[in-house]
Amino acid sequence: MPLPREFHEIAERVNNWGRWGDDDEIGTLNLVTDAVVRAAAGTVRSGRRVALALPLHQDGLQTGLVPGRLNPFHTMVQINYEMFGPGTVATSDDTVTMALQAATHWDALTHVSHSGTLYNGRPADTITPHGRSRFSGIDKIPHIVSRGVLLDVARAKGVERLASGHAVTPEDLDEAAEFGGVTVGAGDIVLVRTGQSRLLLAGDKHAYGFPSPGLSVRTPEWFHARDVAAVATDTLPFEIIPPEIDGLWLPVHALHLVEMGMLQGQNWNLENLSTACGEESRYAFLLSAMPEPFVGATGTPVAPVAVL
Amino acid sequence: MPLPREFHEIAERVNNWGRWGDDDEIGTLNLVTDAVVRAAAGTVRSGRRVALALPLHQDGLQTGLVPGRLNPFHTMVQINYEMFGPGTVATSDDTVTMALQAATHWDALTHVSHSGTLYNGRPADTITPHGRSRFSGIDKIPHIVSRGVLLDVARAKGVERLASGHAVTPEDLDEAAEFGGVTVGAGDIVLVRTGQSRLLLAGDKHAYGFPSPGLSVRTPEWFHARDVAAVATDTLPFEIIPPEIDGLWLPVHALHLVEMGMLQGQNWNLENLSTACGEESRYAFLLSAMPEPFVGATGTPVAPVAVL
Amino acid sequence: MPLPREFHEIAERVNNWGRWGDDDEIGTLNLVTDAVVRAAAGTVRSGRRVALALPLHQDGLQTGLVPGRLNPFHTMVQINYEMFGPGTVATSDDTVTMALQAATHWDALTHVSHSGTLYNGRPADTITPHGRSRFSGIDKIPHIVSRGVLLDVARAKGVERLASGHAVTPEDLDEAAEFGGVTVGAGDIVLVRTGQSRLLLAGDKHAYGFPSPGLSVRTPEWFHARDVAAVATDTLPFEIIPPEIDGLWLPVHALHLVEMGMLQGQNWNLENLSTACGEESRYAFLLSAMPEPFVGATGTPVAPVAVL
Amino acid sequence: MPLPREFHEIAERVNNWGRWGDDDEIGTLNLVTDAVVRAAAGTVRSGRRVALALPLHQDGLQTGLVPGRLNPFHTMVQINYEMFGPGTVATSDDTVTMALQAATHWDALTHVSHSGTLYNGRPADTITPHGRSRFSGIDKIPHIVSRGVLLDVARAKGVERLASGHAVTPEDLDEAAEFGGVTVGAGDIVLVRTGQSRLLLAGDKHAYGFPSPGLSVRTPEWFHARDVAAVATDTLPFEIIPPEIDGLWLPVHALHLVEMGMLQGQNWNLENLSTACGEESRYAFLLSAMPEPFVGATGTPVAPVAVL
């Protein structure tokens, strides 16, 4: 069963295949030029830093709904181990087992395929169990540093958090940009705040996960028109679920990752950033959100930081 | 068997316990003020970014020498999985098991104890298998962004890499600072390049690991005198091994982590940064090296980025 | 706070320390002699085999109540991988991460300590994170094959399963032995059926886990008097919880593992065995329940089989 | 490139597809009837038990040659944890991450496919990353208990171990059967000893793994003619590598697992069994080698035991 015509029409309008060459593996991150980063550094005023990652622990946000989404399972392998004999300096070491998409993360471009195809027209079956993502694995992304822009949709609407069925529209994004006094431009990393993670931070991981507000299928064109480099939200599913077009699940994922070649961030904690931006009346900042270079991975935990 | 008097004499001179209060859990990172970060952002000239993490994969740098240091073991749990039915948008997910100290990482302050004691005088036995690091776990570090300074000791000496038995001394650091035209100051994160990781990048992980050049037991006083916030190197052991004082293993670890409360970074890839700094004739830059917030962990993988 | 006098009185009566030498690490499994095994093989009549392990999968019986009890997390690392070239024979491989006590398992003698002491008077602190169980780890048990006896307490009482607060008493064991026409003797492995796992098999893992019927603090003396080699049940906590003596948690664990040196089995599926024994009117059989030899481990998954 | 004609000719002669019905998922284990097990129990004379599993630990036999073959990585998650308060009974728990094929194991029937096909003609693509082995996963095998027969090829030839390039032929098996005074029959589990694991037990894991003696491509017909239920060896590759027919890698795997539907065991420790059988002059015994029921897995660790 092919995807509906409506999807393909949008896809055609936002498609970036070949835009940065047939060999390109990083998509819209090509838009983050040295000049963009220079300008981003220039936005720093106060030097205030806001971390955007959720804590990583076994009682994390995954509820078991998605079987492979294992919360971080952390164990000690050494505790005050005097490896050089009694009374010597002692060391403690640890390990973790976790889903790369368990908590605050980036989807790599290969996290999603449709119609047997990945970003830049590569065949989906180039992902294999033993080889993982041969192309566009998260390790192919050298760095993610750019101007970050917070589009605080919830705050712009004067609510603590959007209703769970709220599809964030292009109009909502315009409204939030206006509220923040920012113009989204080429190479920007846009953080869309719904306030949904307040549920998680209040301890209700089930309510946080589903149902959730999320991006409308109409937003990829908005991002595309502005040459946005990446988008992240404070929700688990990123986009509105159930979907707006009957039977078309995960269209925003497919448009961003496959058609545009644009990374998505999920489960970002934007609460402190909302407070900071509000206090400083500035919604643009330097953002560093480096991927851990897992070779061939379709995602990565990330510990983003905004520098205001 | 207590540690030798020589250690305690240095310890007394660099000790920071109580300096930021009895409840402090982050040590010298207190020195990274908003003003320091503002100034760090001001160092950005070209916008060039250099990533400093080694790739994460099963054929990583760990050789089995340290049993708990498991290289990242990455598996796919979904590949192009059409969870909403045939022909729908498909997803790929993955997981990893790894030692937090396996590759490019920060040691948390709790990575080392001596004489039964952790940073700020806390008892070492507050680390437990089930609770992990109750105090000063890596999750207690909110953010690591500051001015980075590359002390390119190898390049300053005109060699590709230091000899394996070379203990990097305060004089070496002075020489490299002069070579780079930088003055190390309060809140700086100092990256000490030995060139040792060239062996690793050339494929010889055994030669890379041991023997290795490393920091001399005399350097903690140098860092302390300048109120450095953190130090990282391009070696596995960080400090010179075997040690300079007979029978005193890991003294630099103990001085930095326990006495000073200063984070250490290991296995950082400083090769591209050396090239970039050389090309731009600037050895100071904005550095973001955010820890992944593993709750109670004694270390964390990190994907640092220098912005020049 | 020391354990209550009542505990120590029982402990004194069942203590086996030194009984098999000061160096002994396997406790009551010493009672399984060649002669016992010969006789056990002689109990085989029909050749019918009944497996007693629960399936191992991510949706296992652990509910997250005990943080370290990770359900088996199983991933494929190769799928039909043609490692010798296209069209060659292809292989599929997999890995697992799991708590050794997650499902059907044996507790090793070191799973429990009390008053700082393990079985045979060894100090509890001989268990370390890096070295694990130096003494009495599960790998020290060479084999577990003996006569198995099903004490079908639920069936003897004519109920599907015991009430959740039911403490299984020595009288209950006598009743079940009489019902089954068996005399428990030296070297036997006793399987105590409560019927509790019916809840799990019906899909209610929460009801299965707690509250649960379990062995009374009075039963260790019953097992001791008969020189039983090991005991297993079809419950998660093994013994009755909350405990019968106020404030004395896990007394049966402490008496069996520490005082007697007797292995315990938990989460065994005894439903099919109950049916088989009922049909064949025989409650004694050959039992093989080999531990996986994890070096230094305090437990092991086990796939027991009864041969009738 | 299709497999050579020679392979297909043998395959035709040993094929068991449909023999136990189109729905069958366990293959030659159907040959282990109650009568076979009764007879197997009747072989027990001395009651002597011999365990056949190698120890499970991080310094296991895998050398990194096969990337996914992770040695067991075992960590403690609780150590003497007084969960009910100071002075109460304390517990220790642990976890493991390991390849299911890392040490002593059974290959499930799905471990190998050829020409896109699994045992009983099922499509190889029924194995998926999220669903694993839908058919013939190791959990479909209810139990493995039968008569075991040791064919001590090395001892029959009067050598400590076979030369590394030695392909074990049908004639070798006949010779070993005659040496042991046994006739291999329907439902038997045959253990073929080469002595290769002496290298491993002496500490040389590299020499153990490759090159190695192993079963000839001519042996599947020998096992088929006798209706053997399963075969295990004391080697890593099981069959002779490099292969006897140019370019035909893993033919024995494909014949056993795909064509015959017969489980294979690898890395079994047959040294003590060789000694015991020699001492008792009996090479047939009761064998229990229960799979751990990992749902959908293509293999399982196993702790086999022979009862003489």
From TrEMBL, chains A, B, C, D:
Gene Ontology molecular function: any one: arylformamidase activity
PANTHER family: CYCLASE, PTHR34861
Cited Gene3D superfamilies: Putative cyclase
Signal peptide start and end residues: none
Protein name: Cyclase family protein
GO BP term, pick one: L-tryptophan catabolic process to kynurenine
